[in-house]
Amino acid sequence: KTFSYEFTGPQWKGKTEFKTGNFINGEFVPGGSGKFIEYVIAQISEGNAADVDLAVDAAQKAYDTVWGLKTPGFARGKLLIRLAELIEENVDELASLEALDNGKTFAAARNFDVVEAAACLRYYAGWADKIHGKVIETSEEKFGYTRHEPIGVVGQIIPWNFPFLMLAWKLGPALACGNTIVLKPSEFTSLTALRVCTLISAAGFPPGVINIVLGYGQTVGAAISEHMKIEKVAFTGSTAVGRTIMKAAAGSNLKKVTLELGGKSPNVVFNDADVDQAVKWAAHGIYFNHGQTCCAGSRIYVQSGIYDSFIEKFTAHVKTLSTLVGDPFHPSTFQGPQVSQIQYDRIMHYIESGKSQGATLHLGGERHGTEGYFIQPTVFTDVEPHMKIVQEEIFGPVGVIAKFEDEEDVVRQANDTMYGLAAAVFSRDVGRAISVAHRLQAGTVWVNCVNMLNSQIPFGGFKQSGIGRELGEYALANYTNVKAVHVNI
Ligand code: NAD
Question: How far apart are CA 292 and CA 395, in angstroms?
Fold first, then answer.
């Protein structure tokens, strides 16, 4: 099938048109099930386990013949740069498509998701010819050296909240290291992954290096994680599915697993913080991308001396955001609809649970407007540690604010979670901010800011938020096998 859509502005006018189907060995082919996943705006092929087999065969052949160690690093890097350039040349179309598919605002998709995706590919293009081992001399006659070899065919499974950016975070390091890929986008948001396939071909990647299989997690995702010829699976998504994937890997060929999972990130605001700045950052922390962000600062801890004034200022600020909920394509929109009915229902369920468990609904808590999956930015206060809205990842625009007395108290409360993805600390006392940053159990800690992500800096979770790191030099370890060669002169 061909997907075609005319964007009429106001931010970009133009037509997007591309083939759909699984992208295997450089061609679009119909899904083996013969069925389709129905979107409001599109039908996409529903793949199955047989499609994963085809994709793995294509990826293996490409690995053995034209990729892996057959292509020098600088040549792999050149292709990654060309792909980044093509993404940048088509930034408005890709951002429009991402907003249409996911519901995020065009502005965020344009200025964050797509731009950062291209930056990530450029960053790993730079690494492609710098992946090498060490020489280790053990005596006058003996030495060893290490090789960082690609793993081979890798499986990648990504979520719907940043469909295009997660694709780039996965492709960049895996390709730079010389692996070939079988990737499954989320069944809710597959359109930008399909559009990028034509750019992958145009950039000159040999057929079979990147293969995309569409479909559901229980079928295509499971087939990837159980596949005997896939030596590595990299997953971004919920902690529950991460657990399933790890079991599947253990029960099949013991493939290597990298997991980027959920979070319930604390934002800690001390009495001496710049409160106006902390309010803006904390609101960005929880409401950016409609709260559908793995590192969302969904628990805000405020020291008792500024608790009341913080809540007053935070509420006033969030009220201004609440008027900016609406059409993702309108230039002033801050928050579009949640991604799906399932997510909408889930978030509303959490809001009800907050009310029934005795938290104070301070602001929002209702559907915005009369149709669609729009939810008002929501604030709960008077929360207790045991409440579901304090413990569980809501993945929506719902923030909870709690009070703390001193450093010990807040470190204990902030770390009282099974998650450990991110955290933030706001204080003018740099020494204290850094000391608390070191005590928080999180893979990323922001000081006097939130949601800063950069291709150069690793990202990933402590505790049940994940295994391994994406981004930066650290992500290369996900996609290489280290071989030691001993030599006796
Ligand atoms: P999800 O876990 O439901 O799905 C993620 C992907 O896994 C989808 O492609 C889905 O089809 C697939 N999947 C589902 N069941 C599967 C199975 N049994 N076997 C194999 N694959 C399966 O997550 P979601 O709802 O798409 O995304 C939201 C979650 O992702 C949140 O928990 C969020 O915190 C997390 N997330 C984490 C990061 C990070 O970097 N840590 C980034 C983005 C999202």
Answer: 5
